[in-house]
Amino acid sequence: MEINKNAMMIYKNIIFVFLFSFILIFPATVFSQTNQNDIPDWVRNTAYWWSQGDISDSEYKNAMKFLIENGIISISSQNQNIVDMGDFYTTYDEPNDPYYDEIMFWAMDNEELMVNLSGINAIKLPHDVEIKFMQCNEANAFYSSEERQIQLCYEFIDMMRNIQSEYYDSEEEIRHAVQDSIYETILHELGHGLVDMYNIPITGKEEDAVDQLSTIILLQEGQQGIDALYAVANWYDYFGQQITGIEQLPFHDEHSFEMQRFYSILCFVYGSDPERNYELIDFVPLETEQEIQRWSWLCVEEHEKISNSWNTFLDPLWN
Ligand SMILES: [Zn+2]
Fold it and tell me: Where along the chain do its domains lie?
């Protein structure tokens, strides 16, 4: 009788230590399921031995890891509970000016590489978001919170075809560069959308922040993403070269200057993998070895800091 009573007390002690220790180790997690019947004896023993100081913290943590990895205890953080309630989808407005008919059909034919719907729909959305190709009477792209739309103007595609034809010779290369530039633009507008839909805090220019987001996503797509970023760099270089005097710089604009956006892309691509992209240093006006070292160090630091920051927000949003 006495022995059974002791056994019961030890058992209760183990359960208490076990549950209490979870609260200590995982303060930010929520248990959605706990089935103590499924907890193996060796884990119970581990909890007891840990409470007695007979095994180390790391051995105890390994036992906890086993429970989580084998689904005996499932945990979920608040962010992982974000439910995907919507998708991006495309529509094409009939242009008023028949000049843009051909561009509309071109956009339809090139949609897969230009929008990458299956890729961007891996992001959880609180509602559907329309990607609307349309005539806007300006060469631009927008995110509209009220209309739940990304608007991409036919004029913008037309402009991009003209710009990229200055940098590439073959039709094939131009087509790729235009597709890539539009894809980056959609990622940029998608960034504005995420900031709006999830109230992501931005401390600085939102335009710079979403430029960084599109760059980070493209860098995760390997060489194809880097090629896309070079196409975008051409676009900034093209407009940057039109500026011939300081009085032409748009100081009032919400965007950074075109050449700043150009060098930001170079810095990010370089910073993501300095050994692979070391040739980019040649495009930056750096004179001394000291300047090169400083730029190089800053770009690596900047890339790491900003991609970590964005990934903190993005990780829970991927399906
Ligand atoms: Zn923008």
Answer: 2-77, 88-317
Q: How far is CA 54 from the centre of its chain?
A: 45
Distances in Å between the Cα of 212 and the Cα atoms of 3, 108, 140, 178, 314 are 66, 28, 19, 20, 13
Run of H or E including 33: strand 30-34
Kindly report, residue by residue over 170-197, the tens digit of the pLDDT. Answer: 999 999 999 999 999 999 999 999 999 9
Task: Give DSSP secondary structure letters for 71-96.
Answer: TSEEEE-TGGG----B-EEEEEPPPS
Token pair, residue 164, equals 């990229």
Q: Are strands 30-34 and 73-76 parallel, antiparallel or unpaired?
A: antiparallel
For ligand 1, the distance from its centroid to the CA atom of residue 192, given in whole angstroms, is: 7
Query: Distance from the CA of 271 to the center of ligand 1, in angstroms?
Result: 23
Instruction: Tell me which residues of the chain have a pLDDT lower than 50.
Output: 1-3, 5, 8, 10-12, 14-36, 75-78
pLDDT, tens digit (0-9, with 9 covering 90-100), for 259-301: 878 888 889 999 999 999 888 888 888 889 999 999 999 999 9
142 CA distance to ligand 1 middle (Å): 7
Q: Indicate the Cα dihedral angle 221, 226, 228, 231, nearest 10°.
A: 170
Residues with beta carbon < 5 A to ion ligand 1? Answer: 207
Q: What is the per-residue DSSP string for 212-265?
A: HHHHHHHHTTHHHHHHHHHHHHHHHHHHHHH--SGGGS-TT-SSPPHHHHHHHH
Predicted pLDDT of residue 16: 44
What does pLDDT average to over the chain? 83
